[in-house]
User: What shape does this take?
Amino acid sequence: MQGGFSVTDLLSLFSASIFAAALVAPANAQDLPIGETLYQQYCATCHGMSGEGDGPLGEVISVPIPDLTQISARNDGAFPMLKVIHVIDGRTGLRGHGGPMPVYGAIFTRDAVAARDPIGAAIEARGRVMSLAEYLITLQK
Ligand code: HEC
Assistant: This one.
């Protein structure tokens, strides 16, 4: 077949591109910028760019804004991943109703690119909450 690709050509192209993708994008490095971007967009207004609770909205909110760089320190040195995920998601009842912090699980589901596909929207919302929680791990002091 002139000018065509053989199956072997296609396979080697395919594996070469997987290999290249693996080289440029280790799993974690891919997730962290997403968490950081989401954090700056949704959380820094209250918790501050550095996470220390010094965002501009803190002055108008009557409740103290927690320092997110001290989550592990407040939990005997262990980052309480599941609790943090629940707090960010906000739909699970671990957080008291009527608190000032928005319920991001609902916001992310509503704003999901895949909004017309309920399963896609749920996955997208959870992915965002997860990326945020992973980003918070990197802020721990
Ligand atoms: C409107 C202000 C506000 C915004 C915006 C906000 N938070 Fe909060 N956050 C709070 C307040 C106040 C608390 C403590 C009381 C509560 O749980 O409601 C809190 C608590 C938390 C806690 C629990 C800390 C601990 O040690 O128990 C985490 C984790 C957290 N926020 C993460 C986030 C993330 C991630 C975002 C962005 C997606 C965000 N917050 C956006 C105000 C805010």
Q: What stands out?
A: The two ends are 62 Å apart (CA to CA). Residues 42-43, 45-47, 57, 61, 63, 65-66, 68, 71, 74, 84, 87-88, 95, 99-102, 104, 132 surround heme C (CB under 6 Å). Confidence is low (pLDDT under 50) at residues 21-26.
